[in-house]
Design brief:
alpha/beta, five-stranded parallel β-sheet, 22 helices, binds 6-O-phosphono-beta-D-fructofuranose
């Protein structure tokens, strides 16, 4: 392993920039973003930046250049630049599990640890040859028929990354082979996903870092049963590939060593798309496309590692998120990709941020004395406009928004209209409508004065809703890689400043443990009276 060390932990609130930021936050709680935009001619330019194919405009956020600079001063005070170097050098930034977090190494953005280089290279060669054989029709199932359809069995990071990439790419080009995803423990997920598939031609990729996740193991069992029923044989090993860090467990569950692909332990589940977990992407769209996806992410790695903080897009995304979450105490961030292929981007980002930074305990064991990760949620535009944007316009909740607007080249009329909707939403949410403007609009409809007065408050829209807009220049696998890696790094930036470990997930483990207890019919004594009563009701249900 690497000799690189992690710089010491410095609590953000003990630094001088933190105090400045607290004062700035007091003022931005009440300041008008709209007025700031109208009065500062350089605001848009100074609060926008480009990295690779991504253009980020943060000028509609509740901050200004001074706040941004103070946040960067905070990042320096807690030694973020050395933290970034520690991340890329393979230091144990995953300090609770005493591991590096080197997902960047899978895409060439960092070095593979020396001791793992041979195994990693061998895995890459095997991955590529599986993909080549699959496309050549040379991977054959139990009946001798070529396998030509893929079903990924996995959950969380073993599902969301490849699912997102496959969906996004399938809106750019038809896949060479169909790929479907089963994640849920709900049996209907499996049943409805395999409906219509020809068992003899179906390849299951079973992705699980631990190879002990209940949902994935249940779906593996279902897949075996389905194949056996459809093909009339239990000799179905040729229909399965396993991707895991725990080959021993996979072997114990019947996978031969030649059917297991290695997922390095230093790749976190929610960062694993770039590893063998990304296999479905390559099976569906080709090895080259997978490499392009990785190459885009690698471009963002290089930018993140080398650009000065002042021009560093993931650092900006990171500190802006921290400003909203911890200093303005905004509890929620809606992410709104204007691209049908990015429908599951909010779910991917949700896991990335909430599982990584939904924590409170710091490196020295102290608790973070302010809010950490926000609730991340969202939906692709324009669908959300007709579902929950009303709350953005006139609701009482404090929410910040992130519009993601991929701009393919050339941009056809349909995509232009879609992008215009995104920009119009961000603009309208900032602008709002004053009471007088509402009155004027009602007057123009010819309503009598009494009705105008009654209705005007309902038509008033406060505006000033903070949002960022991220545009892409072009839209392909590489740009998608840039987009995903930028968010991964932004998550690291926040975790670093908060002093928490973004690469563990002990909270989820407790839920898993207790679910196992319940499923095994174990003692319910550990549970509270409400859960015991509900479990009894479930037991009695036939
Ligand atoms: O890949 P595995 O080990 O099956 O885990 C699946 C998911 O479960 C978690 O461990 C907890 O939800 C995630 O971090 C992970 O992506």
């Amino acid at each position: 392993m690497s000799n690189a060390t992690v710089p010491p932990f410095i609590p953000a609130e003990h630094t001088a920039p933190w105090l400045d930021l607290l004062m700035a936050a007091d003022s931005w709680m009440v300041r008008s973003i709209r007025t700031a935009l109208e009065s500062q001619s350089d605001r848009v330019d100074s609060l926008s930046l480009q990295a690779g194919s991504l253009w980020l405009d943060t000028s509609k956020q509740a901050w200004d250049l001074e706040v941004c600079q103070r946040l960067l001063a905070l990042a320096r005070a807690v030694r973020l630049p050395e933290g970034i170097e520690a991340l890329f050098s393979g230091a144990e930034v995953n300090f609770t599990e005493r591991r590096p977090a080197l997902h960047m190494a899978c895409r060439g953005g960092a070095e593979i640890p020396l001791s793992d280089r041979a195994q990693f290279t061998a895995t890459e060669e095997r991955l590529e040859s599986f993909v080549t054989a699959f496309h050549a029709g040379a991977l054959r199932g139990a009946t001798g028929a070529p396998l030509d359809h893929v079903v990924n069995l996995g959950i969380g990071g073993s599902d969301l990354g490849p699912r997102l990439a496959c969906e996004a790419l399938s809106h750019l080009e038809p896949p060479r082979h169909g790929v479907r995803f089963v994640a849920n423990l709900d049996p209907s997920d499996f049943t409805s996903t395999v409906r219509g598939l020809e068992a003899a031609r179906t390849l299951f990729v079973v992705s699980s870092k631990s190879f002990s996740t209940a949902e994935t193991l249940a779906n593996l069992e279902r897949a075996r049963t389905w194949l056996a029923q459809e093909l009339g044989t239990h000799e179905t090993a040729a229909h399965f590939l396993a991707v895991t860090s725990n080959p021993g467990k996979a072997q114990a569950l019947g996978f031969g060593p030649d059917r297991i692909l290695w997922l390095p332990p230093w790749v976190g589940g929610r960062y694993s798309l770039w590893s063998a977990v990304g296999l479905p992407v390559a099976l569906a769209f080709g090895w080259e496309r997978f490499l392009e996806l990785r190459a885009g992410a690698r471009r963002m790695d290089e930018h993140f590692r080398t650009a000065p903080l002042e021009r560093n897009l993931p650092v900006w995304l990171g500190v802006l998120g921290l400003w909203n979450a911890s200093l303005l105490d905004v509890p929620s961030c809606a992410v709104l990709p204007y691209d049908q292929g990015l429908a599951c981007f909010p779910a991917w980002l949700q896991q990335l941020e909430m599982e990584s930074n939904g924590k409170r305990c710091r490196r020295d064991g102290s608790l973070v004395p302010y809010s950490t990760a926000t609730v991340v949620w969202g939906m692709n535009g324009t669908l959300g406009q007709h579902a929950f944007h009303q709350l953005f316009y006139q609701g009482t909740r404090r929410i910040t928004l992130e519009f993601i607007v991929p701009l393919p080249r050339p941009l056809d009329a349909g995509r232009r209209a879609l992008a215009q909707h995104a920009l119009a939403q961000a603009g309208a949410l900032l602008l709002g409508r004053t009471r007088d403007e509402a009155r004027a609009a009602l007057r123009a409809q010819g309503l009598p004065p009494s009705e105008i007065e009654a209705l005007a408050p309902h038509h008033e829209i406060p505006g000033n809703r903070p949002s960022s807009v991220l545009l892409t220049d072009g839209w392909d696998a590489g740009v998608l890689g840039e987009l995903l890696a930028a968010h991964e790094h932004a998550t690291f930036v926040r975790g670093w400043i908060w002093g928490i470990d973004p690469f563990d997930q002990y909270g989820v483990e407790l839920g898993k443990e207790l679910a196992r207890t319940l499923a095994a019919g174990g003692t319910l004594a550990d549970f509270d009276p409400s859960t015991r009563a509900l479990a009894a009701r479930l037991d009695a249900h036939r």
